[in-house]
Amino acid sequence: MRTVIQLLDEAVRAFGDRAYLTGKTDSGWKDTSFREADRISDELASWWLKMNFDRGSRVGLIAEGRPEWVIAELSLLKAGLVSVPMSLKLQPEEIPFRLNHSEAFAVVVSRITLPKLLATWNQVENKPFLVILDDLADEERTVLADLKLESGEHWICWSDMTAAGAEMFAAAPESVGDSKNAIGEDDTVNICYTSGTTGNPKGIMLTHLNYWANATVAVEHFGLPTGVFETLVILPLDHSFAHTVATYAGLARAITLSFVDAREGALSILRNIPVNLKERSPQFILTVPAITGNFMKKISEGVAAKGSFINGIFTRGIRAGVALVGDGFGKPSIGVRLRYGFAHRLAKTLVFSKTKTVFGDNILYCVGGGAILEVKQQEFYAAMGVPIYQGYGLTEAAPIISANTPDCHKFGTSGMVMPGIECRIMKTDNEESAPGEKGQIVIRGENVMKGYFKNPEASAEVLRDGWLWTGDLGYFEEDGFLMVVGREKALLIASDGEKYPPEEIEEVIVSRTGVFNQIMVYNDQKKYTTALVTLEEGVCKALFKEKGVTSAESALDVLMSEFDAYRDADDGGKTIPPAWRPAVFEVIPKAFSEDNQLVNSTMKLVRHKVVDFYSGRIDAMYSDLNVKNERNIDAMKELFGLK
Predict the structure, then answer these.
(1) In terms of domains, do 125 and 262 share one?
(2) What domain range includes position 561?
(3) Integer angstrom CA distances of residue 540 from 25, 211, 507
(4) pLDDT tens digits, 526-559
């Protein structure tokens, strides 16, 4: 039987005493072996089985990544329940819909996420039982009591639950065994709600077979060794990328999962990543462009602070490394190796060997997902010796569809389609695209979801004759690598009805300059395309100083020049039809972020929310084509104190 529990059973048999889960505590890092995780989840499954529920009932899971998160979910699966994982980064008002729609009868929460849940408790229709992963202080117990939530009757702490579960399992272990034996490949493991980048969230039902197929094929495709690797889990476990590649691939290859220290809340995660990387020294990490982009910026700034001599070696070494690496697929010529070899070896010896240690002493590579990764990031890290192997997938596919790997990669692509997955590029509903021609990515395989929970119409729209219509646009390039260019539903639409993916334009502009932090291009049946931009303030300040900028208007002249630099670029700008090139942009002083709900937990732009939030700025661009308008001048004054 191909199930998640089978993956756990096999890991326990082969590597029972190896650390599976590791978390930071007040007394240091604490390991939980595969055998211990199996035993504790058995005991907790006994506790769940004593509750009054139907098999297949749902339980919400809202917590930071930590060992208890994984053990809690395993216990749910063993008891025949379905987990509904939710991000700790959700806004309080986003939680009730997911609990109400899934009809969750219980929720597993941490003391970090409990206040968010309770903030909108009155909007939760059928009040779920609470399992709290931490022991609570008196004031926290008072908050629960004020809501008439009593210990034992309405909630229980993890320590009490594990103690009770151990007694129950000792008395009747056969109940858990019977429950596990009843698990089928088509049973739902969890309902993952979409992030809603293009609309309201839908509940994606993923089965045991979906996860088993994707995890086992992924580790083979990537060539991961068994029983020797460790990774620091820095992405939220509710996201299917981390869910599959960490939690379940961890079982398939006996990978030790260390969790970034999040005990002080979501804001502490970014602060603790560098510290925890040094402490754990993983062989690889899973990441998203926003995180690697921040690391890239910090590394460059840190080297620059060491003076012009070291910075010169570094920048020349990166430039040489980019030339030597090329696209990662083709080999550099002898001429290129002779020209750039020394500069790269010098930087590797004197600088890169030290800058790499920001990821720990054992880092081999990073695996990227969640969003399209800019080529300049891939080139930078490959040149430095910590390549990022970009993949592509979506939650509905559990999630991996294609991936670059250490043995076969090409920068700027999403890698080769994984074995066992059929992939077509469809020009229309019935016509397949020609080689190199863009179309919708359509796949078939054992990783494809069961459907959307309580939404047969949406399920029928994307699941047709066993094929999943992803809604993503792409094509196969000349060497057979998959190129993903954007979302069909997020397409720019011109006044004549023609369509174009915005991500393709955004990536090209960002790759030509370092002054822009974020770009969102826009066209909804208009005569021309526009853009909203946020700025990399440090880069802008240095550039303005270099250019002798003293006024807001002259600063905007510099930004316009940087913004237009992509237009004549052979590696991107010339491929964008003139009609789609943004004619004007608006400078947004504050970055699009999770705080203002304009990006989701994997740092993807939630485009419809950005459009709603900045509708006034967007409308203004269609009545005024002048970049040096009062709004942009005010933004430059606010950001840089210019006249």
Answers:
(1) yes
(2) 491-640
(3) 41, 45, 19
(4) 889 999 999 999 999 999 999 999 999 999 999 9
The CA distance from 217 to 249, in Å, is 9
CB 583 within 8 A of CB 528: yes
Q: What digits encode the pLDDT tens for the residues 108-122?
A: 999 999 999 999 999
pTM: 0.85
Q: Which two three-digit tokens encode residue 106?
A: 């219980």
Instruction: Write the CATH number for 271.
Output: 3.40.50.12780
CB atoms within 10 A of CB 443: 24
Strands 422-426 and 451-452: unpaired
Q: Which residue has the tokens 């009609």?
A: 579
Amino acid identity of residue 401, one-letter, is I
Residue 316 sits in the same domain as residue 217: no
The contacts of residue 174 (CB under 8 Å, 6+ apart) are none
Q: Which residues are CB-neighbours of 626 under 8 A, at least 6 positions away?
A: 584
DSSP codes, 497-548: S-EE-HHHHHHHHHHH-SSEEEEEEE-EEESS-EEEEEE-HHHHHHHHHHHT
The distance in angstroms from the start CA to the end CA of the chain is 70
Cβ atoms of residues 286 and 258 within 8 Å? no
Six-digit token string for 98: 């997911």
The one-letter code for the residue type at 477 is E
- For the segment 27-45, what is each residue's pLDDT rounded down to a tens digit? 999 999 999 999 999 999 9
Report CA 627 to chain centroid distance, whole Å.
34
Q: Which two tokens stand for residue 140?
A: 């926290």
**In this structure, what CATH number is given to the domain that contains residue 570?**
3.30.300.30
- In this structure, what are the phi and psi dihedrals at residue 479, rounded to the nearest 5 degrees? -95, 5
The strand order across the sheet containing 584-587 reads 516-522, 530-535, 584-587
Would you state the pLDDT for residue 237?
Answer: 92
Tokens of 603: 């740092």
- CA distances to 229, 265, 280, 360, 612 from 232, rounded to whole Å, are 10, 17, 7, 10, 36
Write the burial class of residue 308 (CB in 10 Å: 0-12 exposed, 13-18 middle, 19+ buried): exposed
SS3 content of the chain, % helix, strand, coil (to 5): 45, 20, 35
- Whole-Å CA distances, 109 to 78, 95, 520: 19, 12, 35
Per-residue confidence band for 572, with pLDDT thresholds at 50, 70 and 90: low
* End position of a domain, from candidates 489, 517, 535: 489
